[in-house]
Design brief:
Helix 1 runs antiparallel to helix 2, helix 1 runs antiparallel to helix 4 and helix 2 packs antiparallel against helix 3. The protein has one domain. The relative contact order is 0.12. The chain is mainly alpha-helical. The longest helix is centred in the N-terminal third of the chain and has 33 residues. The chain is globular, with a radius of gyration of 18 Å. The chain is built from five helices and no strands.
Length: about 150
Amino acid sequence: MAPAAAPGETAKAERREERRHAAGQAALNMLIRLRTATVNRTKDQESEDAWNDAFIDWTETFNAVHYVAPDGDEVREQVFEIVRLIGFYETLGQTHHESSLWIDAQCRDAITVLSALLREEPLPRRPHFFLDQRETTESYLRSRTNPG
């Protein structure tokens, strides 16, 4: 039988778990807002501005909360990679509809990662669609640095 944790250690572990959960929940809530803004995005400037605001808010929230979240390195790494891909939606010359689908797919992937964090489950493997999008982006970047 394992010895019981000291009261101070138990309280510290509980605070750590509360911070991890609060960080994940805050980032998840902002990500859902971003996804909603993506779905409501049209070609007019007002909805584009709303999406940009949601993206900036989510990025700032994610940065702030996950640096205080215990053991958040792997989550940060996966979600930042997703955010990096979201930023390429215009660069790749996609139509408005294609870019909305691109952004929505990235949001769903990030929601899956953050949900696993909140459920205290192992982080999911990358879906094939994500890997395809990452390869498309990397191929584009290689073509820009080596145009010949």
